[in-house]
Amino acid sequence: MNIKKNLTKIALVIGLVLVLTITAFAVFDLTGYNSNTVNNAMASYDHPSEIVSYMASHFTYKSHSTSWSPEQFYINKWGDCNDFATYGIYCAHKVAGMPKESLYQVRIRYTNDTQHVLAIYALYPTFSEFNFGYSSNGNYYHSKSFRNWFECVDNYLTYHTSKTAVWADCYSYDYNLMQRVTF
């Protein structure tokens, strides 16, 4: 009888760990989302670098197990990498006027089973030039040499983390999976 109880307890613990792992990286879907509160507060910010600078000055990184809307993040003033990335691309689109098609979120999975989310901004897209930037929490990185989202990820992995990546998924503004790259 004790074996059966112990197996039940083990199954419950494993189930709880799986649920927490999945919900820890649940994403707030921006499809159709609009917040007058955030739009009005951020109205003077017209470039991703300014938006990320605002986040660095006003928000604190703190891990949590849910997915917040940009308004919840703005009100609470703290959140995780997912919240920073979602807020960044939301403001870039709704406030700075960047087209949805030039904004991405990239989820990176590491060998130690942790994950990180970056916001990617395709700046000034033309047929002859793509100029990308990205943010990681309150840090903004930009180079005219970044020609696509993967070059942003490569820069992040090379210069801004010591972790080893397993894969990176690129999602559209509306959180549709566009591409997976494995390492």
Q: Overall pLDDT, averaged?
A: 87
Given the helix and strand composition, which structural class is it? alpha+beta
Range of helix content = 25-40%
Spans of at least 5 consecutive residues whose pLDDT stays below 50 are 9-24
The third-level CATH topology is C8orf32 fold
Distance between the ends: 46 Å
Largest sheet geometry: 6 strands, antiparallel
Would you identify the CATH architecture? Roll
Q: Rough shape?
A: globular
The total count of strands amounts to: 8
Number of domains: 1
Indicate the proportion of strand residues.
25-35%
The DSSP helix count reads: 6
For the biggest β-sheet, the strand order reads: 6-5-4-3-7-8
- Classified by CATH, the class is Alpha Beta
> What are the secondary-structure elements, in order, as H or E?
HHHEHEHEEEEHEE
Provide the gyration radius in Å.
18 Å
Give an account of the 3D structure.
It is a single chain. The protein is α+β, with helices and mostly antiparallel strands and 183 residues long. The chain has one domain (2-182): C8orf32 fold. The chain has six helices and eight strands. A six-stranded antiparallel sheet has the order 6-5-4-3-7-8, sandwiched between helices. Strands 1-2 form a two-stranded parallel sheet. The radius of gyration is 18 Å and the shape is globular.
